[in-house]
Amino acid sequence: MSGHSTYEPKTGFERWLDARLPIVRIAYDSAIDFPTPKNLNYWWTFGGILAVCLMTQIVTGVILAMHYVPNGDMAFNSVEHIMRDVNYGWMIRYIHANGASMFFLAVYIHIARGLYFGSYKAPREVLWLLGCVIYLLMMATGFMGYVLPWGQMSFAGAVVITNLFSAFDQVIPGLGTAITTWLWGGFAVGNATLNRFFALHYLLPFMIAGVVGLHIWALHVTGNNNPTGVPVKSKADTVPFHPYYTVKDGFAIVVFFILFAWFVFFAPEALGHTDNQIPANPLVTPAHIVPEWYFLPFYAMLRAVPQKLFGVLTMFGAIGLLFAVPWLDRSPVRSMRYRPTARWFFVLLVLATLGLGWCGGMEPDDVVIRTGQTANGDPTGFTVTWLARILTTYYYAYFLLVLPLLSRNEKPSKVPDSISTPVLSGGGAALPAGAAAEPQKKG
Ligand code: HEM
How far apart are CA 139 and CA 137, in angstroms? Predict the structure, then answer.
C-alpha cells in the first residue's frame, strides 16, 4: 500500500493481531483513511458498483449451481425446475441473468471513464492492464454462462464461437480443427462441452475476484486519478475515503440497483432472446443467431470482414488494442477535459461502438440507406455490413492513428496547477486556509 500507515490498534487484541497479521491495518489504510482526491465525480463510483455486481453474481451463481444439472439431457429442464419449483428460484435466476448485463453495463462505463480521463497513463498502466485481464475473463465467463441453459441460442452461440477457432486451419492446416475438437471435448458441441463450460463458468468468477484484488492493490499503490488528471500535490487535495466516498459510492450503488431491480422484476426477459426458451436441438439452427447485447459490437466486427481468419483477428484485435492504449496515447495531458480535439474523437469512438452494437443485432444484408430495389422489390443500397466496416475502421483508427498523432500534435487547453485550483477559482469564494484542511481531521 502507498504512503505510511495511520492505523493505531486500540484494544489489546488488535495490537496482538496487528503484530501477527496486520489485516485490520490494511483494511483501515485502504478503505477508511485512504487519501482520495476530493474532486472525484460519479464516474468514479462504478468501481464500487462493479465490486457489488461481482459479489451478486457469485452468490446467486453458487445457489443456482445447487439445482442446475450440467448434462445435455437435463440442463434445460433443470433451469425450468429452478424457475418453477425452487423457492425464489425465479428471482435468483433473474438476478443472475440480468446481473450479467448490469455487470457489463457498469464495466463499459468504467472502461470509458478510464479512457476519457486518461486513467491508463503512467503510473497506472499495470492497474489498467489488470482491468483488461478482468474484462477478458468476464467475457469468457459471460459467454460460457449463456451456454448453460442449453436453449437454442445457447447451443448456436457455442457452435459459432467455438468454430471461430477453426479459422486457424488457414494458418496451419489442421491447427484450427485440433483447437475446436479440444475445446469441444468431442467432435461436436455436446455434453462434454456443456460440462466443461459449467466447470469453467464456476471457476472463472473466483479468478476474476483474485485479479480484482490485484487491481485494487495496484490502485492503492498509485492512488486514484481524478477528473482533472492532475496528480495530488498536497494533503489539501484529498479527503479520507471514509466517510466521503463510502457514502457517495453507497448512494450510487443504491441508484444502480434500482435500475437492476427494475429489470429483474418488471422486464426480466427483455435482454434475453426468445429462441433460448426452446430446448437446444442440433438439427435446427435459429434463423438469426445473435449473442447477448454486450458482445454485439465485436460480433459486428467479426461479420464485417469477409475473410474468416481476418474477421476473427479483427474481433480479438479490437480487445487487444485496449491492452496497448497506455503506449499508443503518449500525450502528457491525462484528462480529456483539457484535450479539446481528442475529446471529440473520443465521443465519436463511443458513438461508433454503439453503432457497431446496433449493427451486430441486425441482419448483415439489411439496408440502412435505400438507393433502389431489385426486380422482386427487395431494397438495395448501403447495408449493415458496410456500416459496420466503416465503424470498425474508425474504432481501429482511433487507437492506431488518432491517439498517437494527437499525442504529438494536439494543443491542450490550460491544465490547472492542482486539483483544488479549478474549485477555488471557479467563482465561489476561496475557503479560509483552515477550512480547506478541515476534511482531513478525523473523529
Ligand atoms: C470486476 C470488474 C472490476 C472491478 C470490480 C473494478 C474495481 C475498481 C475499483 C473499486 C476502482 C476504484 C474506484 C473507481 O475508480 O471507480 C477501480 C479503478 C480503476 N479501474 Fe477497475 N474494476 C473492474 C474492471 C476494470 C476494467 C475492465 C478496467 C479497464 C480495462 C478497469 C480499469 C480501472 C482503472 C484504470 C482504474 C483507476 C481509475 C482512476 O483512479 O481514475 N477496471 N476499479
Answer: 5
